[in-house]
Write a structure and sequence with these properties.
Chain A: InterPro entries: CheY-like_superfamily, NreC/VraR/RcsB-like_REC, Sig_transdc_resp-reg_receiver, Tscrpt_reg_LuxR_C, WalR-like. The structure holds 2 protein chains of 2 kinds. Chain A is of the alpha/beta class. Chain A has helices at residues 10-22, 34-44, 62-73, 88-95, 113-124, 132-141, 146-149, 153-163, 168-175, 179-193, 201-214, and strands spanning 2-6, 26-31, 48-52, 79-83, 102-106, 128-130. Chain A has 2 domains: 2-131, 3-Layer(aba) Sandwich (Rossmann fold), CATH 3.40.50.2300; 142-214, Orthogonal Bundle (Arc Repressor Mutant, subunit A), CATH 1.10.10. Chain A contains 11 helices and 6 strands. Chain B has helices at residues 2-41, 44-60, 66-88, 123-132, 135-179, 187-190, 201-233, 237-294, 296-324, 327-332, 334-344, 361-380, 417-426; strands spanning 102-104, 110-112, 115-117, 348-354, 357-358, 386-394, 397-404, 431-435, 442-449, 453-455. The longest helix of chain B is centred in the middle third of the chain and has 58 residues, at 237-294. Chain B is elongated, with a radius of gyration of 35 Å. Chain B starts with a helix and ends in a 9-residue tail after the last strand. The chains are: A alpha/beta, B alpha+beta. At the A-B interface, helix 4 and helix 6 of A face helix 9, helix 10 and helix 11 of B.
Amino acid sequence: MRIVLAEDLYLLRDGLIRLLEAHGFEIAAAVESGPELQRALVELRPDVAVVDVRLPPTFTDEGLQAALAARREVPGLPVLVLSQHVEQLYARELLADGSGGVGYLLKDRVFNAEQFTDAVRRVAAGGTAMDPDVIAKLLRSNARDEPLAALTPREREVLELMAEGRSNTAVAGRLFISEGAVSKHTTSIFAKLGLAASDDDNRRVLAVLAYLNGA
Amino acid sequence: MRGQGRVRRRTHDRERLARRVRRAEQWRALGLGLRMFRRSLGTVMPLAVALAATALTFCVGLVFLAPPALRLTQCMARRERRVLAEEFGIEVPEAYKPQVTVETLPDGRYRFGRRVKRTVPGQWELDFQQFTTDPAIWRDLRWLSSALVLGVLAAVPAALIGYGLIGQLIPVIAWGAHHLGQGDSTVYTWFLAAPDGELSWPAHVLLGATFFGGFGLAPALVQRYGAWSAKLLSPPRNAQLRQRVRRLTETRADALDAQAAELRRIERDLHDGVQARLVAMGLNLGAVEQLLERDPAAAKALLAQSREASATALGELRGLVRGIHPPVLAERGLADAIRALALDSPLAVEVTEDLPGRAEPPVESAVYFAVSELLTNAARHAAADRVWIDVHHTGDALRVQVTDDGRGGADASNGSGLRGVERRLATFDGVLALSSPKGGPTIVTLELPCALSSPRTSTSYGTA
C-alpha cells in the first residue's frame, strides 16, 4: 500500500516512516510543506495520504487545505489527517463531500501502532477514522438532542465506536459482545435516530456522522 | 410602455418622498433651533452671577463666592452636554480634575490640590482649589459666556421666516389699520413696505426669499450650533490627555495583573502536570533498562504505563494550549474560531460574520475569550436554547453581538464573568454593552476600535 506522508517535524516524520514501513506500508513520498504535499498527492496518486494539519509555509492549516484541495481534484482520494488538537469544524470540512475515505486523528493515536495502522488501512479502503475526541465533542454539542438522549448506555457506546468508523466486527471485538448483539444495537440506534438502516459499514458510519453534524 | 410608466411613477414617488423627508428635517431643525434659543435665555442669569462672583473673588477677595458660582457654571455645562448628546447625537467628553483630597505630608503639613498648609484645610478651601484650578471649569465659563450668542444664532432661521411672513401680510395689516382709523406708520417700512403699507414687487420677492431662505437655512444653522457648542464645551487637549493617561494607567495595571495571574496558572499547571509526568516517565524508563533482561514482563508493563503517561501529558498540554491561544484561532482567525466555539456549544448557535481581514492577534484573542465566556453564560446561567452571534467590522471598530433567548436579568456588576470580560476588553479601549431585561432576551455587544490587516487568505467552508 503506497502512502504519501506530510509532516514537518523531522523526528516525527522519521518515526512515522519507520512505523509504517514496519507494518508493511510503502512510503511513496515524505514531504514537509503544503505545496509539496499537494503536488505529491496529485502526481503520485497514493492509496492513502497521512497529513499533519499544521505545515509550512504558513504554519496554519496548510496541510488540511492541501488535502481538501487534492480531494477536490481527485475525488475520494483517501486522506488521514493528524493533528495536535481536534476540531469539529475541521471534521465537518473533511466529511463535507460525503464520499468517505477520510480520517482525522490526534497525533497521540500513533502511539498505539495496531490501532493506528488499522485506521490507515480503513481510510485507504474508503472508510472513516474519526478520533474518539471528535466523537465525544460531537456528542457533547448534541447533548440536548432528544433521540440521542433516548439511547441506552450500551447503544451509546456502540454509537460512539461506530461513529469512529469501526465495522460491526471491530465494535464487537472492542465491547466483548457478539456481532449479532452489535447489529441488534445498531438496528435499534438507527430506528431511534430515524435513519435508514444499511448493511454497508461505510455508509452507516457516514449516516451517523451526518446525523451528529446536522442536529 | 406600462413598464416605463411604472418606472416614471416610481422615480416620481421617490422624489416626493425625498421632498417630504427634507421638509420634515427643516421643521425639526426649526423647532430645535427655537428650543436652543429658549435654553440660551436661561444662561443669562447664571452667567451674570458667575461673572460677578468671579470678579468679586479676584478683585475684592470675597473668596467664598467663586466656588458656588463656578459649580453653577459646571452644572449648566453638564446640562448642555446632555442636550447635545440627546438632541444632536454629539458626545462631548468631560475631563474635570478628580476630587481634591487632603493628604498629610511626612512633616505634618497638609497638601490639597497645589497648596500646602500647616492646619487642616476647611471645606471651602478644598472647594476653592477644586473649582478655580480646573481649566475644564474655566472652559465651561467660556462656553457660558457665548451661549446666548449661539442661541440667537440658532433662532435666526425662525426669525427670517417670521419676518418674511409678517412682511407679506403688511398690506393686509395696513388695510385693516386704515379701516380702524390708523394712519401711515414707519413700522411698515421695517418690512420693506411704503409707510402707507404698499408693497412693491421686488419687496415681495425679497420677503418671499427670506421666508423660504429661513427654511433652507434651518438644518445647517442648527447643526452649526451643535458643532460650535460642542467645540466650546469639549475639554482642553491636555485635560483630555490627562484623562487618557489616567485610564491607560488603570487598564495597563489590570492587563498586567491578569497576565501575571495567567502566567502563574500556566506555571502551576505545567509543574503539577506535564513536568511531574515526564519525571515519572524518566524513572519508569530507567527501571525498564534495569528490568529488560531480568524480568521482560515487568519491563513491558512499565513501558505501557509510560506510554499512557505520555498520552495524558499530551492531553494536558493540549488543554493548556487551548487556554493560552486556541489553535483554530491561530490557524483560521476569529470568524472560524467563533464558528468552532459555536459547534462545541451544546446550544443551537448561529453565526453571521463579515470580516474582510484579520485583526491584531491580541484583539482576536480577547474577543475569542469574551465570546467563549458569553456562550458559557448563556448555557449555564440564562438557560438559553438558541444563540445568535454577529461579528462584523464597521468603520474602524470590530463589533460582536451575542444574543440569547434565555431568561435575561444578567447583571455585569454581580460578580459574573462579564466584569472580567469588560476589563479584558478595556485594555484595547473596547467596551461591553449589556441589555438583559427580566425574561430575556439578553443582548451583549462588544466593540473594539481596531483596524483589519491584509484580506483573509483562507476560505471558509461549511457554516456553523
